[in-house]
Amino acid sequence: MSSNTSKDRPQATAHAAEIVREYGPFPGVDQIHGVTHDGRRVWAATGASLVAFDPETGEPARTLACACDAGTAFDGTHLYQIAETRIDKIDPVSGNVVASIPAPGSGSDSGLTWAEGSLWVGQYRDRRIHQIDPATGAVVRTIESNRFVTGVTWVDGELWHGTWEGDVSEIRRIDPSSGTVLERLEMPSGVGVSGLESDGADLFYAGGGESGKIRAVRRPKAARA
Fold first, then answer.
1. CA–CA separation, 50 vs 35, rounded Å?
2. Distance between CA atoms of 27 and 91, rounded to whole angstroms?
3. CA-CA distance, 24 to 39, in Å (whole number)?
4. Are the C-beta atoms of residues 143 and 4 closer than 8 Å to each other?
5. How far is CA 183 from the centre of its chain?
6. I want to staple 213 with a disulfide (CB 3.0 to 4.6 A). Which of 24, 51, 91, 188 is the partner?
């Protein structure tokens, strides 16, 4: 396992995040934890259920009853969901848990995403992102951040993660090899980022914690050049 740190490196200049749409709060939902995207719908972990909604209409489409108190991911077939000290692999059709592995943070885990055949897990207060084996939960490597890590996502080979400390929250692009911060999208004061997922194109979906909202944030064009 390798470890990279960016704690002492200079930070990229922050730019205001462009929020293009807000969704929710949804009925009976007062907290957003993890967020993922299955190619058509956005899924949000709300504590006791996963809620899927159509990002075009904003209308809820599915609800799966399951423990979901942190990050959510989708590998093209299955959902993955952090539930306290474990990560459940879930059939999105039936809602059944088909497998479980230990979460690396043993309860301190935050964001979750799928990329390159691996799960990537944020460690909130430990300020780390772990790449783990989805079959065993074994840590393959670790990237260190200099901010609390919330949601995590990959898009076009770029690693992005959310931060949230006090009233300050950002979406950051970091070098996956060194952990160096390459780009910072600053959310408005008091607007937090809990879960985070890319739609694979020009938007991020950012969970808003206790606001019960999910915000669509424009991915900068420079990052897609």
1. 9
2. 24
3. 20
4. yes
5. 17
6. 24
From the number of C-beta atoms within 10 Å of its C-beta (0-12, 13-18, 19+), residue 160 rates as: buried
Count of all residues that appear for the chain in the document: 225
Q: How many CB atoms lie within 10 A of CB 138?
A: 14
Rounded Cα–Cα distance for residues 152 and 171 (Å)? 9
- Write the DSSP assignment of 162-198 as a string of letters: EEEETTEEEEEEE-TTT--EEEEEEPPTT----SEEE
Rounded to whole angstroms, the Cα distance separating 21 from 218 reads 9
DSSP symbol at 219: P
Q: Is omega for the bond preceding 134 within 30 degrees of 0, making it cis? A: no
The residue assigned the tokens 């956005």 is 42
Cβ 135 vs Cβ 170: under 8 Å: no
Best CA proximity match to 59, nearest among 71, 41, 74, 79: 41
Distance CA 122, CA 117 (A): 17
